[in-house]
Specification:
It is built from 10 helices and 9 strands. The protein is an alpha/beta fold. A hairpin with a 5-residue loop joins strand 6 and strand 7. It is globular. The chain starts with 14 loop residues before the first helix and ends with a strand. The N terminus is likely disordered.
């Protein structure tokens, strides 16, 4: 697919990352709009923010955002991206070098209206403890947003690529190899539903992310704007529709503190 000028931020990267970030953004905005009055300025924590894509987007929307990131290179990239923003946006963002397991060191319980934990759980040695700590950061009624790898769909990508041995392994596995060659864990919807209930942030809504485009090579760029719009519309609908969302590469789960 040929790269083309599009309305989506260049910071999203190639097609696969654009689909992920854009769908998660739409879904998150939907959840926020359903819980808070229009125009309310929220206190948001992005734990494991990476390069800060969602953190900066939410700051541009007027929210106060704290980004927590343990990787110095990713934190540097986030700081560089923040430095290009207008002063009013920079004032709403605080970036901290730290681990999502250390939220109690940096913040008081109930300090945030929304907590994001996107693409982090697969690298956590003690995921339940991490989630419990993040849930404690939420004010009553606050929103916990998780993006995880879907363990129930690990056979999909190799199966569609004709890698039959890997597909057969995927049926029984709860681990996969990420883009950097690191073997990490995946999560199942039923298990996370139980975990969220146990930490007093029960599951409120969930979506699938990247139903159709997970097998696209990472280096593939964006198509023309009209085609990209149709692609995103199809992915957006699939991520909300049974049975498609069940086989999405990623799951976006939204729990509500005390909900």
């Amino acid at each position: 697919m040929a790269a083309a000028t599009s309305p989506w931020p260049s910071g999203y990267g190639g097609l696969r990352e654009t689909v992920r970030q854009e769908l998660v953004a739409r879904q998150l905005d939907e959840q926020i709009a359903g819980r808070y009055p229009v125009g309310q300025r929220l206190r948001i924590l992005d734990a494991g923010m990476g390069q800060g894509t969602q953190a900066l987007r939410l700051a541009r929307a007027g929210h106060t955002v704290t980004g927590l990131e343990s990787d110095p290179e990713l934190l540097k990239a986030a700081r560089e991206a923040l430095a290009t923003e207008p002063a009013g946006i920079r004032e709403r963002v605080r970036l901290i070098e730290g681990d999502g397991r250390e939220t109690g060191v940096h913040f008081l319980p109930g300090s945030f209206d929304v907590v994001l934990c996107h693409g982090v759980l697969m690298y956590a040695d003690e995921p339940d403890a991490l989630l419990a700590g993040l849930a404690r950061m939420l004010a009553p009624g606050g929103l916990l947003s998780l993006v995880v790898r879907n363990a129930d769909a690990l056979a999909m990508r190799p199966g569609l690529a004709g890698a039959w041995s890997d597909a057969l392994t995927g049926f029984e596995s709860d681990t996969y190899t990420d883009g950097n060659g690191v073997k990490v864990r995946a999560d199942r919807l039923d298990a996370l539903t139980s975990t969220l209930a146990g930490i007093a942030a029960p599951l409120h809504s969930w979506y699938g992310v990247r139903v159709f485009t997970d097998g696209v090579p990472g280096e593939v760029g964006l198509p023309a704007a009209e085609e990209l719009e149709r692609l995103l519309a199809a992915e957006d609908r699939a991520g909300r529709t049974e049975p498609y969302r069940r086989v999405a590469a990623l799951l976006h789960l939204c729990g509500v503190r005390g909900g």
